[in-house]
Design brief:
Elements: E1 4-6, E2 12-16, H1 21-34, E3 41-44, E4 47-50, E5 54-59, E6 65-67, E7 70-72, H2 79-91, E8 98-104, E9 111-114, E10 127-133, E11 136-142, E12 151-155, E13 160-164, H3 167-170, E14 171-175, E15 185-191
Antiparallel strand pairs: 1-2, 2-13, 3-4, 5-8, 6-7, 8-15, 9-14, 10-13, 10-15, 11-12, 11-14
The structure holds 2-oxoglutaric acid and manganese (II) ion.
Length: 196
């Protein structure tokens, strides 16, 4: 398993392009069916709008998560999610009690610039992001220093990106729309949320 450290100021990114490449097709097929996908809606300037993707929140009972006017109650771990979580535990000794799944159905689906800096994630959260399906670009920009260059990572199937340290405090990330013809892309971000 090859991990590379992506050298950025004010953040901590570790990436394995080939982490579980061979399991990824099977996981994608199973999760596509097993997960109860939802159309989340968020409020922007007083208007409720559909998020441009499907999503789902799974985890231990009580692992509540709120972002952008949404409050999510976790669904119970499925067999495939437990398998992925066990594989993650072989790689990284951190507790993860929940996972946010995003399904980008085609090139029109996306996620806007944001940091994962909600209160529930605590200070300097460790977020493990697993990609399945077609590759997608993830862009990063520094939140306050315009001298620091933007960059993008290509997240291919079976890859694992770990965001840690002050990454969420100093950086934002996005998944832009693309005009390329792309198939479905699935992302799982394992997180540890604390209770109130
Ligand atoms: O699809 C991705 O890699 C981005 C997901 C993300 O940023 C999130 O769920 O907070
Ligand atoms: Mn994020």
């Amino acid at each position: 398993m090859n991990f590379e450290i992506i050298d950025i100021p004010d953040g901590d990114l570790t990436f394995s392009r080939t982490w579980r490449e061979s399991e990824s097709v099977d996981w994608m097929e199973r999760l596509r069916k097993e997960i109860e996908w939802e159309q989340h809606r968020i409020k922007i300037f007083g208007q409720w709008v559909d998020c441009p993707r499907l999503s789902a929140w799974y985890g231990d009972p009580g692992a509540m998560y709120s972002y952008s006017s949404l409050s999510l109650t976790p669904k119970a771990w499925t067999p495939t999610l437990l398998e992925v979580r066990n594989q993650l535990a072989e790689t990284i000794e951190r507790p993860f009690n929940s996972v946010l799944l995003n399904l980008y159905r085609n090139g029109n689906d996306s996620m806007g610039w944001h940091s994962d800096d909600e209160w529930e994630l605590g200070l300097n959260p460790v977020i493990a992001s697993i990609s399945l399906g077609d590759s997608r670009m993830m862009k990063f920009r520094h939140r306050s220093d315009p001298e620091v260059s933007k960059f993008a990572l290509e997240l291919s199937t079976g890859s694992l990106l770990i965001m840690a340290g002050t990454t969420q405090k100093f950086w934002q990330h996005e998944i832009p729309k693309t005009k390329k013809s792309v198939g479905e892309r699935l992302n799982l971000t394992f997180r540890f949320v604390q209770g109130r």
